[in-house]
Amino acid sequence: MIDLAGRRTLLIVGGGIAAYKSLELVRLLRRAGAGVTCVLTTAGKQFVTELSLQALSEHRVFTDLFSLTDESEMGHIQLSRAADLVVVAPATANILGKMAAGIADDLATTLLLATDKRVLAAPAMNVRMWLHPATVANVELLTRRGVLLVGPDEGVMACNEFGPGRLSEPPAILAAIAAALSTGTPLAGRRALVTAGPTHEPIDPVRYIANRSSGQQGYAIAAALAELGAVVTLVSGPVALADPPGMAVHRVETAAAMLAACEASLPVDIAVCAAAVADWRVANAWAGKVKKTADGGAPALELVANPDILARLSVAGPGRPALVVGFAAETDDVLANAQAKLARKGCDWIVANDVSPATGIMGGAENAVHLVTVGAVEDWPRLAKTEVARRLAQRIAAFFT
Ligand code: CTP
């Protein structure tokens, strides 16, 4: 018996003959104890009524992006915030296409673009639509971004054709929902430190040395560890990202300040150094703004090495975190450099990636990484940075269990 007591789902019902099965899904979710809020698309209304969904979910149904009453009662952002999981069933080829392209032209697709929650889609469509290269490419892209899929099943369809495209049966969708919600809190009671973003090393009060790190990967890792129950401290260089909820965030500017903030947050069980720490700082940084001289000469910067935070955290001793994870952002010989870094810095794992400009990884939303441990390398597919973070957090949880 599946128990989803206290879990909240947002169910988007797309248009398709299979939409009738969404009524059964709502009934099963309610019976499992889950809260269900339904969003019915305009096409969905052709197949099921708001009244049926409302009666079964015991909750009002939302349909319209521009409804004054809907927005004043529950804004569309609030709708996704109030859910633990967003479920799309049936997910038509049209909805999947809009999700992949980032189109937001109604309440359902706007929610799907705005949500920061996991999305589980149960596709349902004609077999040729499912096998069309456009749908295949959309599904591949969505999977890479971390969207979960259940089905479709194979069988005879409403259009009398045979093949994959049938909406999964409601009990199978319920099981997939339970699995998606069952991450649990395997890191409860563990303390984690995550560094993220670049550092800025001042030249004078208005100029600094920096790098192109956006901080996205480190922030996603901090959020994923917190999601699994860890008590997280995020030490962040200057980035344009909001504080992830539910953790202590220390914003710093320089490598020296990042090291001090890290040391102040010890002891921890887990340290993940995702920051792109500047290797050097300006030893002769000016107290006042450097002015141009009449002869057109340029000031000479004297650089000195910054402390290596990852290496410091990895030093063996009673206070050492049980697991120290570093990153290796490389443009050449990725694996050889990563393995050398693992040995040189004394950490336990290195997440290595190729950040050559052609990859678009630095500052982009996706990452293709290799998890390098002593004596082993795992190649992960190109995934959304949020998905890389979830997988890494799961691996960290497995290390502790
Ligand atoms: N790192 C750190 N402190 C530094 C430099 C790097 O904590 N002063 C950490 C990064 O957070 C990352 C790992 O070390 O986890 C590797 O960073 P990277 O810049 O790839 O390596 P470097 O040590 O700087 O080596 P190189 O520049 O020669 O590639």
Task: Summarize the topology.
Layout: E1 8-13, H1 20-31, E2 35-40, H2 50-57, H3 68-73, H4 76-81, E3 85-91, H5 93-101, H6 107-114, E4 118-123, H7 127-131, H8 133-144, E5 148-149, E6 153-156, E7 162-166, H9 170-181, E8 191-196, E9 201-204, E10 207-209, H10 216-227, E11 231-236, E12 248-251, H11 255-264, E13 270-273, E14 280-282, E15 303-305, H12 309-314, E16 323-330, H13 334-345, E17 349-354, E18 366-367, E19 369-373, E20 376-379, E21 383-384, H14 385-400
Helix pairs in contact: 1-2, 1-9, 5-8, 10-14
The chain binds cytidine-5'-triphosphate.
Description:
The structure is a single chain. Helix 1 links the parallel strand 1 and strand 2 (35-40). This protein is elongated. It has two domains: 8-181, Flavin prenyltransferase-like (Rossmann fold), CATH 3.40.50; 191-400, CoaB-like (Rossmann fold), CATH 3.40.50. By secondary structure, the protein is of the alpha/beta class. The protein has helices at residues 20-31, 50-57, 68-73, 76-81, 93-101, 107-114, 127-131, 133-144, 170-181, 216-227, 255-264, 309-314, 334-345, 385-400; strands at residues 8-13, 35-40, 85-91, 118-123, 148-149, 153-156, 162-166, 191-196, 201-204, 207-209, 231-236, 248-251, 270-273, 280-282, 303-305, 323-330, 349-354, 366-367, 369-373, 376-379, 383-384. The strands form six sheets. The chain has an eight-stranded mixed β-sheet with strand order 12-11-8-13-16-17-19-20, with helices on both faces. The protein has a five-stranded parallel β-sheet with strand order 2-1-3-4-5, with helices on both faces. Cytidine-5'-triphosphate binds at residues 195, 255, 273, 275, 277, 279, 306, 308-310, 326-329, 341.
